[in-house]
Amino acid sequence: MGLFFGRKRTPLVRGQTFGEQFLRFMLLIAVFAVCGWLFWLNTQMTVKKLKARGAVWDRTGTLNSSQTKALSRFTDMFDDELGITVKLQIADGELDMPELDTKTLFIGLNLADKKAVVVFPPLVERAVGDAFRKRLEDEHFPPYFESGDWPKGLVLALADIWDALMKPEEHEAVPNGDASSSLEHRAPVQNANATHG
C-alpha cells in the first residue's frame, strides 16, 4: 500500500503563495479553453467542407473554386429554406448514384454521353410534376451540353426548380408528357437568354 500512497503528491499547479497558484491555475484553464475553442472552429470548418463536398461532387475536376462555392450556396438555400438536400454530381462517364432519401433532390450530369439524370423527392415531384423533371433532362440540359456551358445550365436548372417551389401560385403541375405548355412561364431566364443569344 505504501507503494501507492506513501508518497506525497506533487501539486498540479505550483506557486510560492496561494495567490500565485490560483493565478497559474486560472491561466491553465484559459489555455484549455482557447484550445477547445480552436478545436471547435476547426471542426466547424471541416464539417462545412465535407458538407460542400457532399453536395457538389465534380468527378471531372472541371468546376473551379468559385463555381463550386456558388453551387454550394444554392444547395444551402434549398436546405435552409425548404428542408431539401440537394446532391449534384458531374462525371465523365456513368454516374455513381448515391443513396437518396425522401428529402433529397439529385442532379447528375454525364458529360461523356451528354445525359442528365434528375431525381425529385416525392414532395417536390408532387408539387411540380414529373413532366417538369423530364423537361429538365430532355430539353433544358442538351443545349448546354452542346455549347459546353453545362455549369450555367446547372445553375439555371436549380433556379428553375427554386422558382417553381417558391412561387406555387404561378406554377401548376402538368400531366406527364405535357411539359411544353408550361415551359414558357417556368423558365423565363432560359427564354430570355435564348432571345438575346
Notes on the protein architecture:
With 197 residues, the chain is of the alpha/beta class. Helix content is 58%, strand content 11%. The protein is built from eight helices and four strands; from the N terminus they run ααβαβββααααα. The protein has helices spanning 2-5, 18-55, 65-82, 122-128, 130-147, 150-166, 183-186, 188-196, and strands at 56-58, 85-91, 104-110, 115-119. Strands 1-2-3-4 form a four-stranded mixed beta sheet. Strand 1, helix 3 and strand 2 form a beta-alpha-beta unit. Helix 3 (65-82) runs parallel beside helix 6 (150-166) and helix 5 packs antiparallel against helix 6. The longest helix has 38 residues, at 18-55.
Per-chain topology:
Layout: H1 2-5, H2 18-55, E1 56-58, H3 65-82, E2 85-91, E3 104-110, E4 115-119, H4 122-128, H5 130-147, H6 150-166, H7 183-186, H8 188-196
Parallel strand pairs: 1-2, 2-3
Antiparallel strand pairs: 3-4
Helix pairs in contact: 3-6, 5-6
Count, helices: 8
Sequence of strands across the biggest β-sheet: 1-2-3-4
Question: Which class best fits the helix and strand makeup?
Answer: alpha/beta
- Helix fraction, binned, reads 55-70%
How would you describe the shape?
A: elongated
* Series of H and E elements: HHEHEEEHHHHH
Distance between the termini: 90 Å
Radius of gyration: 27 Å
Question: Stretches where pLDDT falls below 50 for ≥5 residues?
Answer: 1-11, 173-197
Based on DSSP secondary structure assignment, what is the total number of beta strands?
A: 4
pLDDT averaged over residues: 78
Question: Could you describe the largest sheet, including whether it forms a barrel?
Answer: 4 strands, mixed
Q: Estimate the strand proportion.
A: 5-15%
